[in-house]
């Protein structure tokens, strides 16, 4: 699992777990009452005892019906619809009629020398960015647009979300805002699956790509199985099980995450710790000052299924069309920034992937953890490297 910052779905998901657990208990009690009533009617009618096979069949049918109902995710509440959250941000229309909310920073579009699209990570949103200084953005002439990815914040959910649709959303956003034939792309954490997809599906639109702490799917075929398995087992049990469900049964994710008796993601509930001192400090601070839960509520206001869980299903599910090491060299420089103290993405696996892609400019950051946007000065370095450095840097 990965998060773009030290905020995820802790409080809301715990409440969902309690609600789902109560609903499940209520459904089970109702099923048992139905069986008892049927048996009582049979006994009072004088026909004798109810056959055990009939009771078993009724119980099985009722249990199956309860399970199908229990695992069905709740209906999303899109922004701007009756009962849904209000639309407060500017939004751009996609080719399929959905809308993505966005936020602009840097210089104005008409004065920009460089136009950059930013794709946020898990639990993030349109207000995220690499946190480059305004002085640098003005000096270089950078216009930056960050957007709520599908289902997050105020962007419409996409029930068919996939790797291809993530790349198409980026292209559609750039076209809706008139960013020209080519633009630069920066992706962070789990949002980097959109970066790999853009390299695969829209390489002709990219002037350069920077991937910050790109998340890794442990089941990619390109990874050394022994190493990947060993690093996977270092994770907390809840994170291991969450990734298993995302891969083998993504349709079960909402139900699984709602059960208080099952092992679930430490990233979502905020209980996971980080080996990097700055990462851990920011995690504790975000929990103590309420920012953790505030950002989670904003990210998941249209439904945790449409944001967090679809994210997990796309990133940690099956990649049938391609994997990063299957990609051909794009006609633009690609940079990967990886901290050697990243407690979410194992640096050993990142090194392996980048070594397989000779055209990737790999930047390993000593003493840096996963949340790179929190590292002072690193945002300026990433922007400068992406926009000014030659491909061999």
UniProtKB/TrEMBL annotation:
Q: Which residues cross the membrane?
A: none
Coiled-coil residue spans:
none
Instruction: Give every AB hydrolase-1 domain span.
Output: 116-371
Q: Name one Pfam family in it.
A: Abhydrolase_6
What is this protein's record name? AB hydrolase-1 domain-containing protein
């Amino acid at each position: 699992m990965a998060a773009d910052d030290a905020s995820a779905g802790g409080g809301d998901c715990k409440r969902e777990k309690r609600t789902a657990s109560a609903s499940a208990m209520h459904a089970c009690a109702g099923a048992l009452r139905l069986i008892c009533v049927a048996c009582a009617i049979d006994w009072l009618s004088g026909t004798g005892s109810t056959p055990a096979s009939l009771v078993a069949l009724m119980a099985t049918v009722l249990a199956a019906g309860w399970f199908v109902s229990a695992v069905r995710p709740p209906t999303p509440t899109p922004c701007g619809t009756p009962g849904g959250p209000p639309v407060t941000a500017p939004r751009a229309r996609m080719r399929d009629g959905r809308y993505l909310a966005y936020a602009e920073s840097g210089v104005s579009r008409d004065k920009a020398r460089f136009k950059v699209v930013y794709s946020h990570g898990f639990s993030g949103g349109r207000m995220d960015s690499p946190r480059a200084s305004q002085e640098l953005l003005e000096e270089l002439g950078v216009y930056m647009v960050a957007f709520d990815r599908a289902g997050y914040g105020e962007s419409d959910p996409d029930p068919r979300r996939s790797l291809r649709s993530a790349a198409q959303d980026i292209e559609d956003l750039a076209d809706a805002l008139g960013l020209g034939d080519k633009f630069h792309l920066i992706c962070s954490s789990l949002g980097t699956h959109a970066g790999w997809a853009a390299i695969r599906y829209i390489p002709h639109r990219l002037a350069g790509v920077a991937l910050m702490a790109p998340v890794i799917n442990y089941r990619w075929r390109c990874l050394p199985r022994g190493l990947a398995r060993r690093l996977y087992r270092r994770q907390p049990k809840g994170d291991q099980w969450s990734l298993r469900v995302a891969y083998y049964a993504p349709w079960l994710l909402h139900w699984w995450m709602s059960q208080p008796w099952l092992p679930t993601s430490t990233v979502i509930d905020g209980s996971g710790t980080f080996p990097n001192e700055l990462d851990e400090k920011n995690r504790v601070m975000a929990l103590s000052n309420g920012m953790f839960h505030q950002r989670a509520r904003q990210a998941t206001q249209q439904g945790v299924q449409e944001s967090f869980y679809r994210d997990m299903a796309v990133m940690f599910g099956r990649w049938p069309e391609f994997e990063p090491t299957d990609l051909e060299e794009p006609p633009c420089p690609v940079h990967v920034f990886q901290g050697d103290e990243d407690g979410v993405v194992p640096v050993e696996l990142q090194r392996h992937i980048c070594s397989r892609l000779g055209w990737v400019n790999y930047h390993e950051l000593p003493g840096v953890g996963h949340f790179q946007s929190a590292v002072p000065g690193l945002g300026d370095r990433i922007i400068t490297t992406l926009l000014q450095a030659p491909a061999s840097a």
